[in-house]
């Protein structure tokens, strides 16, 4: 089966994790320009901006950052692409005063997500907000409640769901091609976090590295399995980058095992002391019919030696572009169940918080302890 972009936006509700939302916004005509504002144009926000400027039918009308030079640089990027964005340093003032904004892309630090997401959702504008949903279970629930009540569409920055290879792999799994999902095995081994972003090293600001980083792979595995885990067993700490940078409170390595209903397991190893190119990234799902490497969209049928490459739509596009393009399509089509929606984002964020609790408390922690 071929999956066009339109088709994967129409993911079955059960697979996407469903928001049931009664509110209906006036539909955009397919030709209408979607007017977007950016809040937070640091590392991630400026990257998303570059991608959004490539999406057809979008006008970036405002950019905001508390650091004036970043907001100015973002406005210049918009001008270089032929547009014109107003510059703001106070996003609440921007939302109050600039009336032509339809949608917001928010890429501020993790510890701001609860308050900033809710502030934008309350304006009725559509919101694409970076992951994680928030950094505590209570805060996640507050954002989900606000998203349920909001008039606007809410999409979360789990953009790997829109990466063409991973998307094709997940569709293949959900169509039954891999048979019954038995186990997921993930590796994310690389170098340390970028030093120029201090809050990355403060676990009170980002919930530590499972919540801030490993969450992307956990989101893909939870999507493949279609359920939340029942419990987590995990171990982690700081073995190489001790007090480096000074005051560091985030780990530099961990390993974890999740158990799901029916004996399905996730096994994930993440660390920052990989010599360049030594291990890298693996995202493998094992099923009764064979196994698949998600980022390669290549599966190995059981009992055969030849790998099979899946057909991949939009193979030349990156996940960030595809995720933002899907957001714009969702606005135009009034699709209130984005692939990366509030419910799926909460499940993945709670899963990361669950693993972190198991690491810190050195014990098996159950889903109900974080989600109950
Ligand atoms: N999806 C992904 O793959 C991915 C990758 C990297 C980062 N992220 C996420 O993106 C977010 C931003 O991360 P980053 O790496 O860009 O960090 P960053 O520190 O480089 O950028 C954050 C920006 O937000 C600005 N900011 C802070 N408070 C603000 C406020 N009140 N109003 C306006 N701007 C404000 C900061 O000045 C900064 O420019 C985080 O949530 C992070 O988890 C996601």
Helical content, roughly? 25-40%
Mean pLDDT over all positions: 93
CATH architectural designation of the largest domain: 3-Layer(aba) Sandwich
**Any idea what the radius of gyration is?**
20 Å
- What hetero molecules are bound to the protein chains? nicotinamide-adenine-dinucleotide
Strand content: 15-25%
Domain count: the total is: 2
Order of helices and strands: HHEHEHEHEHEHEHEHHEEEEEEEHHEH
Distance between the termini: 39 Å
Query: Reading side by side through the largest sheet, how are the strands ordered?
Result: 14-13-12-11-7-10-9-8-15
What is the tally of beta strands? 15
Inertia-based shape: globular
CATH topology tier name of the largest domain: Rossmann fold
The CATH superfamily of the largest domain is identified as NAD(P)-binding Rossmann-like Domain
* Low-pLDDT windows of residues: 1-25
Mind describing the biggest β-sheet? 9 strands, mixed
Structural class, from secondary structure content?
A: alpha/beta
What is the count of helical runs? 13
CATH class of the largest domain: Alpha Beta
Question: How would you explain this protein's 3D organization?
Answer:
The chain has 372 residues and is α/β, with parallel strands linked by helices. It has 13 helices and 15 strands. The chain folds into two domains: 5-160 and 319-339, NAD(P)-binding Rossmann-like Domain (Rossmann fold); 176-311 and 349-371, Dihydrodipicolinate Reductase, domain 2. The protein has helices at 5-9, 13-16, 43-52, 68-80, 91-97, 113-121, 137-149, 164-174, 203-206, 208-225, 319-333, 342-361, 367-371; strands spanning 34-39, 58-64, 86-88, 103-106, 126-129, 154-156, 181-189, 231-237, 253-259, 265-271, 280-287, 290-293, 298-301, 308-309, 365-366. The strands form two sheets. The protein has a nine-stranded mixed β-sheet with strand order 14-13-12-11-7-10-9-8-15. Strands 3-2-1-4-5-6 form a six-stranded parallel β-sheet, sandwiched between helices. The chain is globular, with a radius of gyration of 20 Å. The two termini are 39 Å apart. The structure holds nicotinamide-adenine-dinucleotide. The site of nicotinamide-adenine-dinucleotide (NAD) has 24 residues, from α3.
């Amino acid at each position: 089966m071929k999956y066009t972009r339109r088709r994967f936006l129409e993911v079955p509700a059960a697979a996407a994790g469903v928001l049931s939302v009664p509110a209906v916004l006036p539909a955009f005509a397919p030709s209408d320009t979607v007017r977007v504002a950016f809040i937070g144009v640091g590392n991630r926000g400026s990257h998303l901006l570059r991608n959004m400027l490539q999406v057809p039918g979008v006008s970036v009308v405002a950019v905001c950052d508390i650091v004036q030079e970043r907001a100015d640089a973002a406005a210049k990027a918009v001008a270089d692409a032929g547009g014109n964005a107003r510059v703001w340093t106070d996003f609440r003032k921007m939302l109050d005063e600039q009336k032509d904004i339809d949608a917001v892309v928010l890429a501020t630090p993790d510890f701001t997500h609860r308050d900033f997401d809710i502030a934008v959702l309350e304006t009725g504008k559509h919101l694409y907000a970076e992951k994680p949903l928030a950094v505590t279970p209570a805060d996640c629930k507050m954002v989900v409640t606000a998203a349920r009540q909001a008039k606007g569409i809410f999409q979360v920055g789990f953009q790997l769901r829109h990466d063409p290879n991973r998307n094709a792999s997940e569709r293949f799994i959900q169509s039954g091609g891999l048979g019954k999902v038995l186990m997921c095995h993930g590796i994310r081994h690389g170098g340390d976090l970028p030093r120029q972003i201090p809050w990355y090293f403060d676990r009170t600001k980002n919930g530590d590295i499972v919540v801030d980083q490993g969450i992307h792979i956990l989101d893909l595995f939870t999507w493949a399995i279609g359920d939340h885990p029942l419990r987590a067993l995990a171990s982690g700490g700081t073995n190489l980058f001790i007090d480096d940078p000074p005051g560091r409170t985030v780990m530099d390595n961990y390993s974890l095992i999740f158990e799901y209903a029916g004996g399905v397991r996730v096994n994930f190893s993440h660390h920052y002391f990989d010599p360049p190119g030594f291990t890298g990234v693996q995202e493998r799902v094992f099923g009764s019919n064979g196994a698949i490497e998600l980022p390669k969209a290549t599966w190995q049928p059981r009992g055969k030696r030849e790998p099979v490459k899946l057909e991949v739509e939009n193979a030349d596009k990156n996940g960030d572009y595809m995720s933002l393009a899907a957001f714009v399509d969702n606005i135009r089509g009034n699709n209130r169940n984005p692939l990366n929606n509030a419910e799926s984002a909460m499940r993945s964020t709670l899963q990361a918080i669950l693993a972190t609790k198991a690491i810190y408390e050195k014990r098996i922690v159950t889903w109900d302890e974080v989600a109950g």
